[in-house]
Amino acid sequence: MPRSDLAAAIARSVGTGLALVLPVAALMVLRLFPPLTMNPGGGTGWLAPLALGTVALCSAVSVIPLLSALVMAGRLSAGAAGLSATALTAGSGALALAGPTAAATLPNSGLALTLVVVGAGLVVAAWAGNQTLADERSRWLGVIVALVLAETALGAALLAPGSELDPATPPLMLAAGLLAAGAAGAWVNRRNTIAALGSVTVALAAGLLAWARPGTVDAPFAMAPLLLTPPLLVLALLDREQRASSDEIVTALAPVAPPLLTRLSTPPRSNHKLEDDSAERDRLGREVRAALAELTDARQTIALQRSELERATDVDPLTGVASRSAIMDRLRDEVAVARRYPHAVSIVLMDVDDMGEINAQHGTAVGDAVLRELALRMRVRVREADAIGRVAGDSFLAILPHTDEKGATVFAEAIRDRATQRPVSTGRGEVSVTVSLGVTTMRSRQELTADTLLARADEAVASARAGGGNFIAFDRLHGLARLEERPPAASEDDKADEGREA
Fold this sequence. Notes:
Oligomer: single chain
Number of domains: 3
Shape: rod-shaped
Strand content: 5-15%
Number of helices: 17
Helix content: 55-70%
Largest sheet: 6 strands, mixed
Order of helices and strands: HHHHHHHHHHHHEHHEEHEEEHEEH
Distance between the termini: 78 Å
Radius of gyration: 46 Å
Structural class: alpha+beta
C-alpha cells in the first residue's frame, strides 16, 4: 500500500477508535463520582437538548442522500438506512424541542423507543444487501413506508416520556443495542466495514444510555456515538455505489481487454490482507497502456480500410479510370458549374465495336486486356481538367469542360486514331479493334442536365454503330450525323489542341 493511502487508513482508524472509546472513558470517569444532576433552571439543563439537537442535525443531513439512493437507484438497503436516519432525526429532534424540562428524565422511554426503531431499520438494511426495487412506484412506496415508520419514533419521543414505559427504559435500550449489534454482524458478513461501524455506534450508544444515570450529565456523553452513525451510513452507501459503477465499467469494457478486466473485476481484499501492491499497479498500468495502443492501431487500420473502400468505389478496378458513380458525379458537377458560370461543356461516349465477338473468340481475359489498353490510350490523351470514366462494360465517357463541338470532334478523332491505328497486344496475340463515338455539347447558357447529355451521347453512339461502326456521330441537334471523313493534314496533337477552349 502506498504511504499516502496507509496514512489515511491509519488516520481513519485512529479517529473512529477515539470517537468510540472517548464516550466510554468519559462515562466511566463520571461513574466514579457522585451524579452531576442536570438542573433545568441552571446552565447544565441545556446539555441534553444541545446533544439531542446535534444528533438530530447530523441525522437530518444524511436523510436526503440515503432516500435519494432509494428513489434513483432503487437500493433497498439505502432506504432502510434512510429509515433509521429519519427516525433518529425525528426522535432526537422532538426530545430536543422539549427543552431543559425533559433533562431530568433523560435517558427516557422515548429515546429508548427511538433507538429501537433505528436498530430495526439497520437490521432491514443489512438483510437487504444488494437487493433493488425495479419499478419507480415501488421506490416511492418505500420512501413513504420509511417516513411513516419514522413517525413512530416521533410519536414515541413525544408521548412515551413520563408514562408507565419509563421503568422499561434500560431493557428497551438493551433491545435496541442487540438489534444494532445484529445488524453490525450482518454487515461484517457482507464485508461492508463502514456500515458495520455505523451499526456499532448505535449499539454502543444504546448500551451507554442503559448504563447512564437518569437526569445526570451521563446521558449527553452516552449519546456521543450517535453523532458518527449518519456519516458512516452515508459513506457505506457511497462505497457501495462506487463498487456498482466499477462493475458497470468492467462489463462495458470487457470485449476490449479481457485479461486486464478480469483482474480489475476481482473483489477487493479486506484491509487486514492488503500488502504492498505497487508492482501489481505497475503491471495493470502497462496492460492499460498496451490496450490503449491496440485500440489506437485498430482505429488507424479502420481509417485506412475506410479510405480504401472509398477509393474502390471511385475507381474502376479493371481499367483504373473513374467508376460509373464517380464519373457521373463529376458530370453533374461540371454541368452545374457550366450553368452557373456560362460556358460550354462537351462529352464523348466511346463504345468498343463487336466486344461480344472478341470475348467469344479470344476469351474474356483478352477482352479485359483490350479494355485496359483502350482506357490507357484515352488517359494519356485527356487534359488535366478533363475526366474519363467507365460507364458500362465496354463504354467509356470523357468529360471536356470549356470545349465546344469543334474541340470535342477533334478529341474524338484523336481517340479513334489511338484506338484503331495500332492493334492491342494481349497474351494470345494482337487484336485489332474499332470504336464508335458519340459527341454532344451543352452550349453556353443552355439548361440541360447530366442525364440528358448522356442520353444524347448514347443516341449518337447508336447512330455511329448503325453506320457499321468505327464512326464518330453527333447528337440530335446535328441530326445524328456521322463524321465519315477525317482531315488528312494535321497531326494528332495539333488536331487535339485545335478548337478546344483554354
